[in-house]
What does this fold into?
Amino acid sequence: MKNNLETTKKVPTFLLYFYELHNLLRYGRLEFFSRVEIETSSFCNRRCSYCPNSVFDRGKKLMKEETFKKIILELKKLHYTGHIYPHHYGEPLLDKRMVDLVRYTRVNLPYVWIRIYSNGDYLTSSLLRQLVKAGVDEFFITGHDGFLPPHIKKLMQSKLGKQTIKFFKLDKSKMPLFNRGGLVKPQRKIIVKHCDLASQHLVIDYRGNVVLCCNDYLAKHKFGNLEQEQIVDIWKKSHYQKLRKEIQDGRYRLDICRKCVALSP
It folds into this structure.
């Protein structure tokens, strides 16, 4: 398929000022993350062609529960009120501990927004009720097959589903596909002039590694491990700060950034 060229836009200056003011007032720093991705499990039941899971096998591994709780308690100490996404490349609903992990998160971080990204294959009415009761605010279900599965349609028609489930039909012929830092081939070429992912997202894989961004599937760029280090100490590392600034300004010296063609949704 012939590639089409598109260009990403930089975040408007007034929004950057707003983020900086918010961060300064709440965290005492101009630059701070507003989204935290915590990968509790490494495995997924699907092998979509546009996902690195179709190429690589990381096995079936879980984040240590004590590591997860340590992360949440550190965020609590920081008075964190942003978003929590319990996922990275693993399917979160395959983690049997998810209800308990969400509950622990909500008890300790009452003001965060908890969103679960899922393929929806394992979402049932019972699990939906349990997760919402535990503290999930929103579900993003992706229709990887290009249609709305009957069981998801039924859930979305329920009162609880109408309030919490958003379904995204993946039309591969009409939307650009992300190449995940060069690991998979996209349908359209997108020139990324500016990228805020590394500055706004704290991404933690199932081993507790803080990685560059959500596209660093292989964890090639690790800045610390939360089993041994603190979130703030890792975020404040000088080389990490410098790299985030360079990426935000569109200066890509890492191979993963130079090969990447788009921001992740």
Observations:
- The CA atoms of residues 44 and 258 lie 27 Å apart.
- The longest helix spans residues 13-27.
- The radius of gyration is 18 Å.
- The longest strand covers residues 113-118.
